[in-house]
Write a structure and sequence with these properties.
By secondary structure, the chain is of the alpha+beta class. It contains five helices and seven strands. The chain has a four-stranded mixed beta sheet with strand order 2-1-4-3, with helices on one face. A three-stranded antiparallel beta sheet has the order 5-6-7, with no helix packed on it. Pfam families: CIDE-N.
């Protein structure tokens, strides 16, 4: 029994001094979690190209903006709405998700948008027209002796769909 105690003390001795270091290191790692990536929109100076990117930090966003917009050199980010320069990490953290930023190369400056307000569509496609209601009628026969079938289909606001099938069989089949 004494031998087992002495053996356990000898084996535990080298491990014990490292335990407080492991605990403090684990505590440091768990205390400050890495920030999750947030979505941003980046456009070029003339606003002809807009891309969505995800970034955790300002440095990462600068790298991604440069690569996505194929900028030849380093870029500077400004807010698209008013031209405020985003230079510090603290200011970057205050930006909301989905903020539109403009990437400017050396020698370029921010210019206000020609159209007032923010352009919601990212492409130059015309907005899709949504009708209030669309009703279609289909007449068809499944058997030459039948009177016919009618299918009525209604679509409301491009989302909700209702349909009804009316089968009109021959007189002999109705009697049976």
């Amino acid at each position: 029994m004494d031998y087992a105690k002495s053996l356990s003390l000898r084996l535990a001795a080298p491990i014990l001094p490292s335990l407080p270091r492991c605990a403090s290191m684990t505590q440091q790692l768990l205390a400050s979690p890495a920030p999750r990536p947030r979505p941003y929109r980046v456009c070029n100076r003339d606003r002809s190209l807009r891309k969505g990117v995800m970034a955790r930090s300002l440095a990462e966003l600068l790298r991604q903006a440069q690569s996505v917009l194929l900028a030849p050199g380093p870029v500077q980010l400004v807010l698209d709405e008013d031209g405020t320069v985003v230079e510090t990490e603290a200011f970057f953290r205050t930006l909301e998700e989905g903020t539109v930023l403009m990437a400017l190369s050396k020698g370029q400056s921010w210019v206000a948008s020609k159209t007032p307000g923010y352009q919601l569509s990212l492409s130059h496609k015309p907005p899709r027209k949504i009708d209030v209601a669309c009703v279609t009628f289909d007449l068809y026969k499944t058997n030459p002796r039948d009177l016919g079938c009618l299918n009525v289909k209604a679509t409301l606001y491009g989302t909700y769909t209702m349909s009804y099938d009316l089968h009109c069989y021959g007189a002999k089949r109705l009697v049976k």
